[in-house]
# Entry
Amino acid sequence: MFELFSIGFDQILHLDIMVTVFIGVLGGVIAGAIPGFTITMAVVLALPFTFGMEPTQGVATIMGVSIGGLSGGLISAALLGIPGTPSSVATTFDAYPMVKNGFPGKALSIGIWASFFGTLISTVALVTIAPQVAAFAMKIGPWEYFSLIFFSLTIIAGLTGDTIEKGLLAGLLGLAIATVGIDPMTGVSRFTFGLFYLKAGVPFLTVLIGMFAMSRLLTEIESKTLRKDEMSKGEQQYDSKFKLDILESLLIVLKQPVNLLRSSLIGTFIGAVPGAGASISNILAYDQAKKGSKYPEKFGTGISDGVIASESGNNSTAGGGLITTLALGIPGDAVGAVILSALMIHGVTPGPLLIRNNPEIIGSIFVTLIIASFFMIIIQFLGAKVFVKIVNIPKYVLVPVVLALCIIGSYVLHNRITDLYILLAMGIMGYFLVKYKYPLTPIILGVILGPMAEVNLRRALIADPNPMLFFTRPISLFFLVIALLSVILSVRQNYKNNMRKRQKA
# Structure
């Protein structure tokens, strides 16, 4: 393991790579601070800029954007009570009241330190667990892989959306999109409807950019409330008396090791569960901190415990999500899917053989997580007062800039003008799905997991046409059983939520 770190430091400690990682973290922090501009959008827009880089530099830059984005949502969540990203929702519960109580610097400082330690703890978990997961994966066959991916798809559908039905339908739509193009095993065209340009399939990144970025832009264009007045008031209110309590806040965080460790481990675990992501770990870590507290009644009034739990919980998904992404080739969430695609674009195949075949990539990712964490606290502490102004960027400036980046990013991937038509179609589809409250994450992960599920299912049936092997092989049966349990629990949770809504009504 120490050898991987040695290789990683040798790969990363070059001026050009360090500069691009720093810029990536800075861009991620800025993107995270802008309400509605999600981490996924930031990572997607940054990806085309890495095409000309070496694999190590390209992946390190994307990792920097991810780390910065997870932390950047803290800025608007604390100062304005508006979560910059979905992963900062619980941060508003105590960080914003702390700011209203007259401690904006303290709220930000505690959140920054919690983000920093959460990332480091998840990195330790990644370094410790990922090689074991990869070694275990070497022993499983296509039956187990299919069952694992099937379980991943049930988790995706169950944990997103207003209802489980909408989550399942969104996941099925993603699987359907993945079937368009050339059959991966026979070379026969499928569902192209006589359109030649669909024979190449629907590019994953085009779907990603269209569904997330384009649909968001169309929604923003439609929106009549730009929140400009509210943001200006927030800027004026805290601009004059802004002071960071760096050392005092560090001591506050370190005096709560149980809360910090528990929240970070929750985030790491949630990050490793396909389809969950930082938005869930952020709320779950906060909930567990409140349940385990001696004074739960103080949560929501501006208590430091809540800020520590929420921020360490969401940032620790960075390392946790990479466990399954690197060891199994299965992304934990949409951001992990982009990282997975970044590896593939640079000719690196994630999975059990990655550590053996590309130790320099694994080592550089380990080291990048640590370096990006230090870059994050430097950028956050030095630029916290300046970043308050970023949330005040008018939408009429932001929307056309991002739209242009979306179009460029889609075109340069394959240099095909037809990809822009697909981008537009995916954007319109994503817009209507958002409008009718269908989740987008199951679609994206369905697109990337669908081909893997299909190939492994067909390989298993070719090796032995007996379908009972999926149920008689212990590991495969285990994944199918927990897949069934995840659906049952999701249905049960959905039923309880509907009952609560009816009682409130």
Confidence is low (pLDDT under 50) at residues 225-240.
